[in-house]
Design a protein that fits this description.
Elements lengths: L1 H5 L1 H17 L6 H22 L4 H25 L2 H4 L1 H5 L5 H18 L1 H9 L8 H15 L1 H13 L3 H14 L12 H9 L1 H13 L6 H24 L8
Helix pairs in contact: 2-7, 3-4, 4-7, 4-8, 4-11, 4-13, 7-10, 9-13, 9-14, 10-14, 12-13, 13-14
């Protein structure tokens, strides 16, 4: 972890470089992040309304916005982890930069994208009568902890994809399937035990339900916060051991 802190100027620069390239190709620029989240929220609200026979935008939109905000962050990081080392192959092979820098770059870039789409979440929370926008401030350290915890799985995925390139085609549909096992369009209920079980073992569910509880004035399940803390500690420890004891992946590229 100290190595990542010392190289923060590099991965921050690489992250901003990627964003400039990404948004520099469109007229909307960073507004794409806002447009993507906003249209997804509207689409899901309409879809749910068609299914239940009633469209309640004021109640459903804030809950979906918070959930999708977390989901887009998680899914984008996991998906990009399968291609990041291959995309940065030339830089990696012709410099002394370690692959951990590119892993940190992925997290940093999507944290920045998450921040760019925050106005959608904030606007919907402000227009809702049963919300607490100030809960977003309490959510900051939890999102940060979750981001650090993701360093281990995305580092492993990045390495494994170099060894088994077929993972590039397996991971995206797996992430899409995970969407339906995460409480984005459904809510765990004691009357449906399997939904409670899924929520207890799904890290995305911990984040989504905690974020919704903090911003929508529902009961906070402190067990989920403890899950995130424990997951983060284990992930940091394992990640530190990984980058210390395992050789560079450059020979595999």
């Amino acid at each position: 972890m100290l190595r990542l802190l010392k190289s923060q100027r590099i991965w921050r620069h690489l992250g901003w470089r990627d964003l400039r390239i990404l948004y520099g190709r469109s007229r909307l620029g960073p507004l794409w992040s806002i447009a993507t989240l906003a249209t997804s929220v509207v689409g899901l609200v309409l879809a749910q309304g068609v299914l239940v026979g009633e469209i309640n935008f004021g109640a459903a939109a804030p809950r979906l916005a918070v959930a999708l905000w977390i989901w887009f962050f998680f899914s984008s990081i996991i998906t990009e982890s399968t291609v990041v080392l291959d995309a940065e192959r030339r830089t990696l092979l012709n410099s002394v930069i370690d692959e951990s820098v590119f892993i940190a770059k992925v997290v940093w870039k999507h944290l920045a994208t998450m921040a760019l789409s925050l106005p959608v979440v904030l606007l919907l929370l402000l227009t809702s009568h049963n919300s607490d926008p100030w809960g977003l401030l309490l959510l900051v350290p939890i999102v940060f902890a979750f981001s650090v915890a993701l360093l281990l799985p995305i580092s492993l995925l990045a390495r494994w994809t170099v060894v088994w390139p077929d993972l590039k085609g397996i991971v995206p549909p797996t992430i899409q399937m995970l969407f339906f096992f995460s409480p984005i369009i459904w809510t765990p209920s004691p009357s449906i035990p399997v939904s409670e079980t899924i929520a207890e073992i799904n890290p995305v569910a911990w984040m989504v339900l905690t974020a919704q509880a903090l911003t929508l004035t529902t009961a906070v399940r402190y067990s989920f916060i403890m899950h995130i803390v424990v997951f983060t500690v284990i992930s940091i420890t394992a990640y530190s051991l990984l980058i210390r004891r395992h050789s560079s992946i450059k020979a595999r590229l």
